[in-house]
Fold this sequence. Notes:
The chain has helices spanning 2-15, 24-51, 66-74, 78-96, 101-106, 112-119, 121-126, 128-144, 152-167, 188-213, 216-235, 267-286, 312-325, 380-387, 417-425, 445-460, 507-511, 514-539; strands at residues 250-256, 295-298, 328-337, 341-349, 355-360, 398-401, 404-410, 430-435, 464-468, 474-476, 482-483, 492-498. It is an alpha/beta fold and 540 residues long.
Amino acid sequence: MQDAASTTTRASKAYANEDGESSSATHTWLKASALTDGVAAIASSVLLILSFPSSDYWPLAWLGLVPILVVIAIRPSPRRSFFLGWLTGAVFFYGSCYWLTYSMIHYGGIPRWAAYLLLAPVPIFVGLFPGVFALVLARAILAWGTRALFLAPLIWSALEWGRLALTGQLWNAIGYSQAYQPTLIQPARWGGVYAVGFMVVFINAAVAFLVLKRNARSVLVTGLVFLSVALVMVASQRSPPDSNAQSPEAVVVALQPNVPMDIVKSNEEMRGLIDRHMSMSEAALKQLPNDGRPRLVIWPESPMNFTYGNDSQLRELLVRFATANQTAVLFNSQEAAPNDGIYNSALMVNQQGSLIAQYDKIRLMPFGEYVPLPRWMPGASMVGTIVGDFTPGTKYKLMKVGDVRAGVFICIESAYPSIARSFTRDGSDVLINISNDGYLGPTAVMRQHLANVVFRAVENGRPILRVTNSGITAYITPGGQVKDATEGFQTALRVWRISRNENASTLYSRRGDLFVAFSTAISVLVFAATFWRRKLGSRG
């Protein structure tokens, strides 16, 4: 109680200047303080940017929030903290998602300076969530003192969940910075990427507390936080064995065709690209033993723009290929949807070339596959003709390769935990992600996107076969190890073996976002309690 009261008193004295009662010296101090706060916010942004792919200085994430947490705790003005959090978030998202300009520059013909300017509104908006985090934390510190820093991981997790709910995007949640460290991401088995992020922010809060207090008690508290995080990590190290490596029941040939991203291709170019798909696939199949195991060739999402339902030549070609090679084929195609719409679909034909399964992409890419604007809005229809206007699917359909059940999801759906979780709950033995990042170039998006897939594997305790047009194609084990990764923008082949999965589903597969829902509930109560505490203080 004394800590909270003293913090409030110190804060009140610091804010007196904002009401006009200050000397020239105080004005100078405030200007210097504002500069220091801004530098701290930028420092946190830069540290976090460097912790993510492709910089991959992942340990920096465990310290990246310390500068902003320290300045919030020293001067816990909710309004000022909101601005600083907003600045931290906006700079972070701008710096880590710069690759969104690639397609504008290289395929849209937009000048580089204009593309980077057009990108700005997105991180400015998404940066509001770290801003709200800072505001809530500042109010908590005003109410309960510096020890309220330890509420930071709860509030941060809640705001990441809120970001997914309100914007449809969880890209570069802080936990993803640890994606390529399998030992550190096993808490995702029970709490998803949010649990890993919670641990990262918990350590940040403990270090900030130590920096502020610098006494024996703070050393003890920080040590206990480090120990508790270490114990949770150790307790979570129970990733299931990779059953595919033990008793394979089917063989998969994964093709990375590296189809150029040009939208318009001549007939000759299309024939050459189809021949590339066929010849590479056949070369891999000829190397396989004739042991009677079911075979599956996977072609990724790509600019081939297959339209199986309307293309009789493609259907005949697949019949000949499947029967000649005794293999099923999984590929991407644009298929008819109700009301003259189009699905972005994954289709499977069997060894006789007959269509046996179709999954229609459920989560579409905003401004890439649909326009999230009302049709009556001026310009909405024009934008739709440029970026495409697909119809979202509604059903999770498993596909069978022999006796192995596969859940197939397409491209950006790997960034939505609920998609892979739904397939796992429905009984998938293996998950398959077909994707195309080629239009975003050889940028950080390739490893950032793969980081999402790694977490989906750990969250559900299922291997994931990631098959891409231009990289990164890879096999991800249930424990999050990335194997057989390809280089970007090169043709490549991979052969993998899959089997039925006898491992029990994870807690996250069964209960979903229970952990982060609990974090959100506590955070809401904390925020409400700060008003109640302030009201009691004013009465006193």
